Description:
Blueprint: E1 2-7, E2 10-12, E3 18-26, E4 33-39, E5 46-51, E6 57-59, E7 67-72, E8 77-82, E9 91-101, E10 104-109, E11 113-117
Parallel strand pairs: 2-11
Antiparallel strand pairs: 1-3, 3-8, 4-5, 4-9, 5-6, 7-8, 9-10, 9-11
Amino acid sequence: QVQLVESGGGLVQPGRSLRLSCAASGSIFSGNAMAWYRQAPGKQRELVAAISNAGRTNYTDSVKGRFTISRDYAKNTQYLQMNNLKPEDTAVYYCNLNVFISGQRFDYWGQGTQVTVSS
């Protein structure tokens, strides 16, 4: 079993920054990838950023140049640095850990942390 605990959300004004953290514990398999998803009211959950076990990253277009995903392998923790936040970034942000075992993908999720960008 894998547990993911997020922290760092909150209310922030447009243009400000926040950093989200996600600590993983439990039966963590090697070779896993991690990611951040978000879900705004009335919208589907979307991938925001992902980082592979090798450190390769990818971002959804709307956050490129503003958000940075990183991970500390020793601490089994990933981060999402969010700069120049916009009201449209308001959503619940979810930490994700995924791993392929025998060709099947397994996903684990955190409980979510609210990010609200408003003046």
